[in-house]
Design brief:
Strands 1-2 form a two-stranded antiparallel ribbon. The chain is flat, with a radius of gyration of 19 Å. It is mainly alpha-helical and 71 residues long.
Length: 71
């Protein structure tokens, strides 16, 4: 059982976001944190720089397909 766990971890580590055949959607995270609390957004080279809240990825783009009946 442990072997399967470690094998799955190795496979997951080998998969890179650049290898995906579909775009990842931005999470909408807007707050930065250190190891215990909210902080102001750190600058390049500062500790905790590069958090999800500092990145603007593909914004969600959803539409209503009208497949569910309305009440």
């Amino acid at each position: 059982m442990r072997f399967l766990f470690f094998l799955s971890v190795l496979i997951a580590a080998a998969v890179n976001a650049a290898d995906l055949s579909f775009p990842l959607v931005d999470t909408g995270q807007s707050i930065c944190y250190d190891e215990s609390r909210e902080i102001t957004a750190p600058g390049a080279g500062d500790p905790f720089y590069g958090q999800d809240a500092q990145m603007n990825g593909n914004q969600p783009n959803c539409r209503d397909n009208d497949i569910w009946p309305s009440d």
